[in-house]
Amino acid sequence: AQKVTQTQTSISVMEKTTVTMDCVYETQDSSYFLFWYKQTASGEIVFLIRQDSYKKENATVGHYSLNFQKPKSSIGLIITATQIEDSAVYFCAMREVITGNTGKLIFGLGTTLQVQP
Amino acid sequence: NAGVIQTPRHKVTGKGQEATLWCEPISGHSAVFWYRQTIVQGLEFLTYFRNQAPIDDSGMPKERFSAQMPNQSHSTLKIQSTQPQDSAVYLCASSSGTYYEQYFGPGTRLTVL
Fold it and tell me: Most buried residue among A19, B52, B74, B80 by CB atoms closer than 10 A?
């Protein structure tokens, strides 16, 4: 069964620190894509970063990076030098390539990040 | 470059009325997706078009929901005989291909009284 689980409901950190958000997924496919999105207070959903399952290197974009641990079916999002404007809800999502090759994203329930000044 | 456009941003209907939601994908994107977001269920997939053809509607409640993509510049989601449980934010997303990241529109907040 396809499933994405984010166990952290909310996290609060101080500005300029590093935060890691956890995500584990379940899939029978040998090939899949993993994504992180951010939903701002206005409701806008913004794509942040992506990891292809066949790539061993962790993806990095700006101050976002991923900790991809394939044997553990885990894809953590790391945000360095956090800023107040990073406060948002962060969603982990998976797209299967073989079984679920329809392009649909399966989302976790999200982690709310609050960055304190 | 304009992002995904969704109209209306808010819609209020009475129980039993019809609601039509519109989506204009990013120009040049071949894949269009519809999702629904509620507090309880989170983000749920509804349906997917590729090059205007329906590919997967496995998330659509069959009896009252329908989606179309008559041309590459817009897609519609129609809900007949709306019920209070249909209240949600309906999100449209587009991507340049099946395996690429999806870009979301601002959503339409549907409230069924």
Answer: A19
Contact criterion met (CB < 8 Å) for B104 and A45: yes
CA distance B89 to B46: 12
Q: What are phi and psi of B85, to 5 degrees?
A: -75, -10
What is the H or E stretch that residue A35 is in? strand A32-39
CA count, 13 A, side-chain hemisphere, B37: 22
Q: Which of A47, A41, A44 is nearest to B6 (CA)?
A: A44
Q: Determine contact: B48 vs chain A, CB below 8 A.
A: yes
* Amino acid identity, position A106: I
Condensed to tens digits (0 to 9), the pLDDT of residues B29-57 reads 999 999 999 999 999 999 999 999 998 89
Amino acid at B35: Y
Closest CA to B5 of B32, B24, B33, B28: B24
Closest Cβ–Cβ partner in A33, A105, A108 for B45? A105
The span from the CA of A64 to the CA of B102, in Å, is: 18
Cβ–Cβ contacts within 10 Å for residue A64, how many? 17
A104/B contact by beta carbon, under 8 A: yes
Residues B112, B88: Cα–Cα separation, whole Å: 9
